[in-house]
Design brief:
The complex is a heterodimer of chains A (277) and B (179).
Chain A (H helix, E strand, L loop, with lengths): L1 H26 L3 H40 L1 H39 L9 E8 L8 E4 L12 E3 L4 E8 L4 E5 L6 E6 L3 E6 L7 E7 L9 E4 L12 E9 L6 E8 L8 E5 L6
Antiparallel strand pairs in A: 1-2, 1-12, 2-5, 3-4, 3-12, 4-5, 6-7, 6-9, 7-8, 8-11, 9-10, 10-11
Chain B lengths: L2 H21 L12 H29 L9 H18 L7 H25 L7 H29 L20
Helix pairs in contact in B: 1-2, 1-5, 2-3, 2-4, 2-5, 3-4, 4-5
């Protein structure tokens, strides 16, 4: 009898807690409550940022050690690959100087706006996400430094993502490989598409690329900056790593490998640019 | 649960935030890191039983969700189910759960909790991971749970003031004794 009563009580508790959880999710999903949750999250991040900064600085070598121990074989092959890459890049440097001249001419002709002239805020990455289910980083600059939600974030060689949440002294950046990320891009001979994130370690997928597109492996991909795009034009995103033409489909499956290694970011720059939208 | 227990739980949650955000988030293996709050939810179920464990897990989930960008309340939903399931399993045992059982519970809870979170996230239209990445996350989280489980169980025995290795649900809400 007592056991039965206890079972009933346990189940009732479970049902109440599940309903409470679902209610919290529903209520906090949009409107005022969502903004309130965002404020609480930003406030908490601001409070914890000094702790994160201190511990992150102290533990970076430890974290690297862990990663190195787990991936020692990978590090060796990565080293060999990088040595080959250095040789290849030296050759490319000479070629790229010539290509740069051509690019300058094209830009001048098409009158494309530059990302270069946009003011930027340099920031240090102080934390990776606390959840394994999001591809974000936290940076040590916030609204008090001129960082706002929606601003693009770049590293020295290309696009990193955009700011999705900003507190006074910290901000959260959604990486372009996050499945919630979509970037309008231009590539090849003026083709445009949307580069959709597919999760950590996976390349970006270009959507709605016509089967007749002449793109091929190695083609550089940059932000399009069209109309109400979330990014200014001309920021390097990556290079085409795979092109497939599924039978019976009118579109090609194009994958793009990001230029920036998003797993080892230490410093980034926030472009103080907001979409016209 | 008594006010003293809630106070202890607050201390544990605060310490967990510091450890997770300051330490564990930096230990990234193949793109994933240990999840201390999931382990605490597992421990709450194993040590506190299904009812008390679920209540504690709900509260822990609300705290954990402040520090992530996933929908607020999603962790609570996941943790409640994990803690309740763990508590139910332990409540069927004839005696005290052995250390071996506790470790297995931590590992299975880590894998199950990760998959459950991914499934719930997909259900409500959140971004989901590729199968490959999800497998990596589950393995890393489970490994983290196994390593930290002995400490986590001891902390929860102190938090809910139970005799080590036992659990009771009586008086989960009424401020009753934990034994």
């Amino acid at each position: 009898m007592a056991a039965s009563r206890r079972n009933t009580s346990q189940r009732l508790t479970l049902v109440i807690l599940l309903l409470a959880s679902i209610t919290v999710i529903t209520v906090a999903y949009k409107g005022e409550a969502r903004r309130a949750v965002g404020s609480v999250r930003n406030g908490a991040a601001d409070v914890l940022s000094p702790v994160q900064r201190g511990i992150a600085a102290a533990l970076h070598p430890v974290g690297n050690l862990f990663a190195g121990v787990v991936d020692y074989g990978g590090a060796l092959s990565e080293n060999q690959r990088l040595q080959l890459e250095v040789g290849r890049l030296r050759r490319q440097l000479i070629e790229s100087q010539q290509a740069q001249q051509q690019l300058d001419q094209l830009r001048a002709e098409q009158n494309l706006p530059f990302a270069d002239g946009i003011p930027e805020v340099l920031a240090q990455v102080i934390s990776s996400p606390s959840s394994n289910f999001e591809l974000t980083i936290e940076i040590d600059r916030g609204t008090s430094d001129g960082v706002g939600v929606g601003m693009p974030v770049v590293s020295g060689i290309g696009l990193v993502g955009s700011v999705i949440s900003a507190g006074r002294h910290t901000a959260v950046v959604q990486l372009l490989t996050d499945q919630g990320s979509a970037v309008g891009v231009r590539f090849g001979t003026g083709d445009v598409a949307v580069a959709q994130g597919q999760g950590g370690g996976s390349p970006l997928q270009l959507e709605d690329v016509s089967e007749t597109s002449a793109t091929h492996r190695g083609v550089p991909v940059v932000t399009s900056g069209l109309d109400v795009a979330a990014y200014p034009s001309g920021i390097p995103v990556g290079t085409v790593s795979s092109v497939r033409h599924p039978g019976g489909s009118l579109t090609s499956q194009v994958l793009v490998t990001p230029l920036v290694n998003l797993s080892v970011l230490q410093y980034v720059a926030v472009l103080q640019w907001l979409s016209p939208a | 649960m008594t006010i003293r227990m809630w106070g202890r739980l607050g201390l544990v949650a605060f310490a967990a935030v510091i450890v997770q955000v300051g330490l564990l988030d930096q230990i990234v293996v193949a793109g994933a890191h240990p999840d201390l709050f999931l382990l605490l939810a597992i421990s709450a179920g194993v040590v506190g039983g299904p009812q008390r464990g679920a209540v504690i897990a709900f509260a822990l989930g609300l705290v954990a969700d402040v520090f992530v960008q996933t929908p607020y309340g999603l962790s609570s939903l996941c943790y409640v189910l994990v803690a309740f399931a763990m508590g139910m399993v332990v409540s069927t045992l004839p005696g005290r759960p052995t250390l071996g059982f506790q470790l297995v519970a931590a590992v299975l809870g880590g894998v199950g909790g990760t998959l459950l979170f991914a499934g719930l996230g997909t259900l409500i239209g959140q971004t989901d991971l590729s199968r490959h990445q999800l497998a990596i996350v589950a393995v890393v989280v489970a490994a983290g749970c196994a390593v930290l489980a002995p400490l986590s169980y001891r902390i929860f025995e102190w938090t809910v003031a139970v005799v080590p290795g036992t659990h009771r649900d009586a008086g989960a809400f009424a401020g009753g004794s934990a034994r």
